[in-house]
Amino acid sequence: MAQRQPEQQVVVLTGAGGRFGRILSRHLRAEPGLFPVLLTSDPDALERDDPAAEAVYQVTLADPESVAAVFRRIHEEQGDIDVLINNAAVITEPGFKDFVHKADDARVAESFAVNAAGALYCIRRTLGQGRDHGKKVINVLAGRALTGHERHVEYYASKAALYNATKTLAHDYPRHAFRNVMTGRIDLGDKGDSPDSMWRAFRAFILDPAPAPYREVYFRPRLEFTWRLLAYYWRHFRSCERNDVERS
Ligand SMILES: NC(=O)c1ccc[n+]([C@@H]2O[C@H](COP(=O)([O-])OP(=O)(O)OC[C@H]3O[C@@H](n4cnc5c(N)ncnc54)[C@H](OP(=O)(O)O)[C@@H]3O)[C@@H](O)[C@H]2O)c1
């Protein structure tokens, strides 16, 4: 089993075998100050140039016992965890339409079990062992986790669950730092946000000695982003029913 150098930060990445996970793994390997700990459902499928430069653990994210056991092992074998990147997810199905008639109940359950509960098990085990301050959590979400979107009901809703949980955690544990990454489509060979520029934002956070406790991270031109967010909150305000109520 590869082991980190004492000066390296331990960075745990889930979903390391996925498309974005493989890109993040490559960036983590290229940073001498970081030691990648790659979590995956299938270690044999990982592309590995230098097994000595990283540690790999098999985990079943939907199973809290599996997550607890793996995080205990990481702590024993690699030391305290500095950064957790929750990247694994049951993602959208291309072309899917009509949730009411065509959704698969098992996939709905699995989406919440992996995307929301699995990520929370990982956060709990990262923050719950070792030092009680200065740890960092990055959740790879989706911009639509905030706003809702079309068709992919369980995907956006499970991302929204983690979005919301992380805001609560950031409130309750301000000695750690949290980032909800509200990405749009990622360019994984087609079109979208550049994964390398996304990594630069992740890296800046990981290396920041005094980060803000919570930020929502967007990848959009500033003016366009400002306009969209204002429009969203205006629509939200207009959709709220405000009733007077007697209170005891
Ligand atoms: N692609 C996009 O345009 C886009 C847009 C917005 C947000 N995102 C987010 O970016 C992240 C990465 O997306 P991606 O496009 O790289 O997806 P991907 O290629 O499908 O990879 C997702 C990985 O998550 C893990 N995973 C999936 N189902 C699982 C299950 N049932 N149990 C345990 N692990 C499971 C697997 O990792 P292992 O193979 O290592 O087990 C899988 O390879 C996701 O959180 C996604 O929601 C992507």
Molecular structure report:
This protein has 248 residues and is α/β, with parallel strands linked by helices. The protein has helices at residues 19-29, 64-78, 99-102, 105-127, 144-147, 153-172, 195-207, 222-238, and strands at residues 9-13, 34-40, 55-58, 83-86, 136-140, 177-181, 214-217. The termini are far apart. β1 (9-13), α1 (19-29) and β2 (34-40) form a beta-alpha-beta unit. A seven-stranded parallel beta sheet has the order 3-2-1-4-5-6-7, with helices on both faces. It has a single domain (9-222), classed as NAD(P)-binding Rossmann-like Domain (Rossmann fold). The chain is built from eight helices and seven strands. It is globular, with a radius of gyration of 19 Å.
What descriptive keywords fit this protein?
alpha/beta; binds NADP nicotinamide-adenine-dinucleotide phosphate; single chain; 43% helix; seven-stranded parallel β-sheet
Mind describing the biggest β-sheet? 7 strands, parallel
Portion of residues within helices = 40-55%
Beta-sheet strand percentage?
Answer: 5-15%
Distance between the termini: 62 Å
Number of strands: 7
Strand order of the largest sheet: 3-2-1-4-5-6-7
Structural class assignment: alpha/beta
Q: In terms of per-residue confidence, which ranges show pLDDT below 50 for 5 or more consecutive residues?
A: none
- As an assembly, this protein is single chain
What's the mean pLDDT score? 96
Radius of gyration: 19 Å
CATH topology: Rossmann fold
The CATH superfamily is known as NAD(P)-binding Rossmann-like Domain
If classified by CATH, what would the architecture be? 3-Layer(aba) Sandwich
